[in-house]
Specification:
By secondary structure, the chain is an alpha/beta fold. The protein is built from 10 helices and 15 strands.
């Protein structure tokens, strides 16, 4: 099969489109014909070697955590899916989605939302699960609360705004000038242009501050966080790690960080919201798999609005049970 692999850590140039062996599935896995994937910052952070203590030095590696495609084979222990099902979800760490076929565990995928294309569906899993689990599990979000999303036009932020609204909160979205209208269209009740105003100097206070771009800390935002408010980030810096430990044992404001946990139950919850029209997908650009290096380079600029999709041509495939 065709895949994009890396044989060493480095810049986008280490991504090579070539022929590799098709994966063999385990009893609890599905073999999926990948129709689309997407780019998440963790993909290029792994590629750069920033997580090498976890990902190790064994090569080649196929990256890519998000997949949407068609099941072509199921393992002997799989009970919830059959060949021919259109699914979306995640691959095992450190990836595998940047390929024509991927072996994915049954418990981290779900049937694809019927109203999304494969490219749109592939843009959902990691980013939307991060937003959902941050707000619901770490933030204990409640109807009627006030929530601020920093980075509201980014890959995680677009979903965070919509999920927070779907869960009945008042949402303030922070973004650049050019993306304010987009953030409003996603449901934000109020927007802050960070080029004109520092949200940490705002007069309002919030029950939850979700820093979806990992730019701040509790100490920098505590003035606009309510006395029992929760600051959540996707990037656990040393400062945030220390704050999370200290605030865990003290009353008052809390600092928390999130490691996304892919699972079918949450994907089904997102599927319901998507099919009900409460979540839409925003794709900035779509690249073919052969141009993955360019997609990574664009993601690294930090200028992407919403998600970057990776598409593969649709071809007829044989399925087996």
């Amino acid at each position: 099969m065709k895949a994009v692999v890396i044989r060493r850590y480095g810049g986008a140039e280490v991504l090579q489109y070539e022929d590799v062996e098709q994966p063999k599935i385990e009893p609890t896995q599905l073999l999926v014909k990948v129709r689309a994937s997407s780019v998440n910052p963790i993909d290029w952070k792994i590629r750069q070697g920033m997580l090498s203590l976890i990902t190790g030095s064994k090569f080649p590696k196929i990256l890519g955590f998000d997949v949407a495609g068609d099941v072509v084979e199921v393992g002997s222990g799989v009970t919830r899916f059959k060949a021919g099902d259109a699914i979306y979800g995640s691959t095992s760490f450190p990836g595998g989605g940047y390929a024509e076929f991927a072996a994915v565990p049954e418990n981290v995928v779900a049937l694809k939302p019927t109203n999304l294309s494969y490219e749109e569906a592939a843009a959902v899993p990691l980013a939307a699960l991060t937003a959902l689990q941050a707000l619901r599990d770490q933030g204990n979000i409640q109807t009627g609360q006030t929530v601020l999303i920093n980075g509201a036009a980014g890959g995680v932020g677009i979903f965070a705004v919509q999920i927070a609204k779907a869960l009945g909160t008042m949402v303030t979205g922070v973004s650049s000038t050019k993306n304010l209208d987009l953030v409003k269209s996603l449901g934000a009740d109020r927007v802050i242009d960070y080029t004109q105003q520092d949200f940490a100097e705002d007069i309002a206070q919030y029950d939850i501050i979700f820093d979806a771009v990992g730019k701040r800390s509790l100490s920098q935002t505590k003035r606009v966080l309510k006395p029992n408010g929760i600051y959540i980030t996707t990037l656990p810096s040393p400062e945030v790690l220390l704050e999370s430990v200290l605030t865990a044992f003290l009353p008052g404001q809390k600092a928390k960080f999130l490691f996304e946990k892919p699972n079918t139950k949450d994907l089904l919850f997102l599927k319901e919201l998507i099919e009900a029209g409460k979540i839409r997908v925003v794709i900035d650009r779509t690249y073919p798999l052969q141009e993955l290096a360019a997609a990574h380079a664009y993601s690294e600029t930090g200028r992407a609005v919403g998600k970057i999709a990776i598409a593969q041509p649709v071809v007829d495939i044989a399925v087996s049970s």
